[in-house]
Amino acid sequence: MTSLQMSPSIIALSGGIGGSKLALGLANSMSPERLMIIANIGDDFKHFGLHISPDIDTLLYTLSGKSDSKRGWGLANETWKVMETLEKMGGETWFKLGDMDLATHLERTKKLHSGETLSNIISNLCKKFGIKSRIIPVSDDIIQTMVKTPDGDLGFQEYFVRNRCKPIVTGFSFLGAKNASPNKEFLKALSSPNLKAIIICPSNPFISIDPILSVNGVREGLINSHAPVIAVSPIIGLSAIKGPLAKQLNELGYRVSSISIANYYSDFIDGFVIDNEDRLSVTEVEEMDIKVKVCNILMNNITTKIELAKTVLKFSSQCYKSSKKIRKKN
Cα dist. 301→232, 273, 307 in Å? Predict the structure, then answer.
């Protein structure tokens, strides 16, 4: 059995930038071979005929140490000659693809066209990039996050990048999710006796975690797994740590609070990690039958990423899995 075939002790569900920070911390706080990261594919799309997987690539670049730490996405020391030339030709440049980044999209698209699965392609890229943890797309089928607005539905990248999250959000849907098959390795790991915890990274619940949960059988798998499920809040105080989450919460009628996130996940999480700034929320979250850990959750360097990861891992060992009931969201 190779290291990449070892049964995971920790599963992490992750989107892009925010989730990848904790994923990197986890990979540096435990045996990385024992970490399985389930990646969101709802924001994958076709551009210039290429298959683009933004969240997967952010995880690949972050865990391999190749990411641009200032931007939080893409590759360090990237150049933009293709985009600059394309702009001079009057082509579309609203979605920026760096010259080195293009190599990833070209190779992935070529292999997909030859019949390889996305899972296999990402597994091989992990090996090429020297990543010991497993990064696994939640499904090898196509899932598309659609953003509902008063003016009609928008594809996720149209909303997120082209329109810079300006449209008002009235809801989300995930095309293809109901008929998508969850990754077999993921399902097998959920029932493994070696699994110690499932961690929901501090990613946006609507656009990063929900596309994962929407795949047939995933939410049930989390509920039925013997391992405790721990979520890390993507909210500190009245603000989102990163991205448009606070705006989306407001538009969807939720209060901007870590309590809203706990309640949103309350049917399947057993533990919740919140920031020191939100310690007054502890009682309200515990009333949902969810154990709470209060600590610093802002990850602005490798030290704080590892510190949070170690805290989450220790906390997960103190949580229990409730098998007597399935909590209902209010």
Answer: 17, 19, 10
Whether the Cβ atoms of residue 129 and residue 32 lie closer than 8 Å to each other: no
Secondary structure of residue 150 in the 3-state scheme: coil
First-to-last alpha carbon distance for the chain, in angstroms, is 45
Look up residue 119 and give its amino acid: S
Q: Which two tokens stand for residue 67?
A: 């990411």
- Beta-ladder partners of 199: 12, 230
CA atoms within 13 A on the CB side of 146: 13
Q: Which residues, 6+ apart, have CB-to-CB distance to 178 below 8 Å?
A: 214, 216
Element (H, E) at 11: strand 10-14
CA distance 157 to 310: 34
Tens-of-pLDDT digits for all 330 residues of the chain?
344 467 899 999 999 999 999 999 999 999 999 999 999 999 999 999 999 999 999 999 999 999 998 887 899 999 999 999 999 999 999 999 999 999 999 999 999 999 999 999 999 999 999 999 999 999 999 999 999 999 999 999 999 999 999 999 999 999 999 999 999 999 999 999 999 999 999 999 999 999 999 999 999 999 999 999 999 999 999 889 889 999 999 999 999 999 999 999 999 999 999 999 999 999 999 999 999 999 999 999 999 999 999 999 999 999 987 643 444 433
Question: Cα(6)–Cα(189) distance, rounded to whole angstroms?
Answer: 10
For strand 45-47 and strand 50-52, is the pairing parallel, antiparallel, or unpaired? Answer: antiparallel
Place of tokens 């293709």: 82
pTM over 0.90: yes
C-alpha–C-alpha distance, residues 240 and 16, integer Å? 15
